[in-house]
Design a protein that fits this description.
By secondary structure, this protein is an alpha/beta fold. It has one domain: Alpha-Beta Barrel (TIM Barrel), CATH 3.20.20. The chain has a four-stranded parallel beta sheet with strand order 4-5-8-9, with helices on one face. The protein has a three-stranded parallel beta sheet with strand order 1-2-3. Strand 2, helix 9 and strand 3 form a beta-alpha-beta unit.
């Protein structure tokens, strides 16, 4: 039996039953990822294992650097096969890093490969995988269909034309692919030249001449409207922390004029300008019924030399350690007081923020929309077994796990869909073990259907994406008078008796 067995991460019979009956076959709604819309529009067929697995994967690059692998095998000019061999040499050194789990889940689920990857197995695995990549169901679209991905929300700048999204929507592709509105560059005022260059691109895409601050807001609203017409129902912000300082429109306008003239803002001006913009974006999302995502707490671009040499998103980001909850609370409160608080998913990069975030969002549930403010799934460095369990526990203890909208890939790779399986196994193991210990009721309709809803249906109902096929038959959580999971007449007992 290979490393990735049917019982992988599932410690008890109840956990295994929950996973097989209530989680494994559920479809996927990947509402936050960084997949390339162009790859999907063109239905890219990947030439080799490097292209689909290593290209652009900063998780792997960090591990390779830590293993003493030279940069030319990460982001440099080495040949694809040589980069793959360098990665294969690193994999045995990743034991107890989540990469070891992900690597072997991906090899198993995409290629049917059970062998452990190392420098000895690498040549055969490279050949077998490359042969399999030629098959139709291993194209960009084929992969999404194969893993039952009902919908994907990519991450798109307001200045993007969305031409690839339009191509996808006109192609008849069964999986729905929607943009998500990511206006981070509207807040990135530290470099006036870069900011003004982006303004010119935004002006061109929106067909709005941006001379004044009101023009800037009009262009952003025009793009927000265009995203909505393309099916977008989510925005997203990647911030070190929430910006929640008081700022009038006159102050924001003065800051905009200053930076448009090529002058740098003071740190106070930059924070106030960003605060004004975040309230503006909150109002736009609320008006359209969108869900806003806040990714908070990443310490980005820590290594200036490597940033200058290799650019952003190449593996030199970390967990930030800023005070978070006060500014988050002030931001939520400012929108709530204005009657403009949209549905929101708040992700934390620092595990110390699990409970502060989980408790804070409970202050802004409105009694109208179930789970209106969500504690997002374990993100980035927390996207692993320990991090997922901590997030699930904090959410359970401070809120309603039964309303959780579940997992996302947050990935640039088409090889990342087993992360949903990884999460589902961890969820079922956590819940199944508690049932066996008597900490949760031994009733399948109460507990099992909660698991099914977390895996898919909660997100489908919450996000309101324009999908014709979003509904999946998942019974509502009952009052607990259902079949026992482990009793003498239970489905699990029968399966165990039958040896299945």
């Amino acid at each position: 039996m290979g490393f990735i067995s049917d019982h992988f991460l599932l410690e008890t019979e109840t956990a295994r039953y929950f996973y097989k009956k209530h989680a494994a076959a559920m479809p996927i709604l990947d509402y936050h990822c960084h997949l390339s819309p162009q790859d999907l529009a063109e239905n890219r067929q990947f030439s080799n294992l490097f292209e689909i697995w290593l290209q652009g994967d900063h998780y792997k690059w960090r591990a390779m650097r830590a293993n003493g692998i030279q940069e030319r095998y990460c982001t440099g000019d080495a040949e694809p096969y040589q980069k793959f061999l360098a990665w294969a040499e690193t994999v045995p050194r990743t034991l107890r890093n989540p990469l070891y789990h992900w690597v072997h889940l991906e090899l198993k689920r995409y290629f049917g490969i059970d062998e452990l990857l190392d420098e000895h197995s690498a040549p055969v695995i490279w050949q077998r995988a490359n042969e399999r990549l030629m098959d139709e169901d291993m194209s960009a679209r084929g992969i999404l269909e194969r893993f039952q991905v009902m919908a994907v929300c990519t991450t798109d700048d307001p200045a993007d034309s969305l031409e690839h999204h339009q191509q996808i929507q006109q192609s008849g592709f069964a999986t729905r692919v929607f943009p998500a509105f990511r206006p981070d560059r509207a807040l990135r005022t530290g470099d006036p030249a870069s900011f003004n260059g982006w303004i010119e691109k935004l002006s061109h895409t929106a067909n709005v001449e941006i001379a004044r601050f009101v023009d800037f807001l009009a262009a952003l609203k025009q793009r927000h409207d265009s995203f909505h017409r393309h099916g977008c129902r989510l925005s997203d912000h990647g911030l070190d922390h929430c910006y929640a300082e008081a700022c009038t429109e006159a102050e924001a306008s003065a800051a905009f004029t200053k930076i448009r003239s090529g002058h740098s803002l003071s740190s106070e001006e930059a924070v106030r300008f960003a605060s004004y913009m975040m309230v503006f974006f909150g109002h736009l999302d609320s008006e359209k019924g969108w869900t806003k995502q806040l990714h908070l707490g990443a310490f980005r671009n820590a290594n200036g030399r490597m940033l200058n040499g290799h650019g952003r998103d190449t593996g030199f980001d970390s967990i930030g350690d800023w005070p978070q909850v006060e500014s988050l609370g002030r931001y939520l409160d400012s929108l709530d007081r204005a009657g403009a608080l949209p549905k929101m998913i708040v992700y934390n990069a620092n595990p110390s923020d699990n409970y502060t975030f989980a408790a804070m969002i409970g202050n802004f549930q409105d009694g109208k929309i179930a789970g209106k403010i969500q504690l997002g799934s374990a993100w980035w460095f927390l996207d692993q077994k320990d991090g997922m369990e901590q997030q699930l526990n904090a959410l359970s203890n401070c809120g309603l796990l039964s309303r959780f909208v579940g997992m996302v890939t947050d990935s640039r790779s088409f090889m990342s869909y087993p992360r949903h399986e990884y999460f589902r196994r961890i969820l079922c193991n956590l819940i199944g073990n508690e049932v066996e210990r008597g900490e949760l009721p031994d009733h399948e309709d109460l507990v099992g259907n909660m698991i099914s809803r977390i895996c898919y249906q909660n997100a489908a109902e919450y996000l309101c994406l324009p999908m014709a096929h979003k509904a999946v038959e998942v019974p509502a959580i009952s009052n607990g008078h259902g079949l026992p999971i482990r009793g003498a007449e239970s489905p699990l007992a029968k399966r165990m008796e039958e040896g299945t």
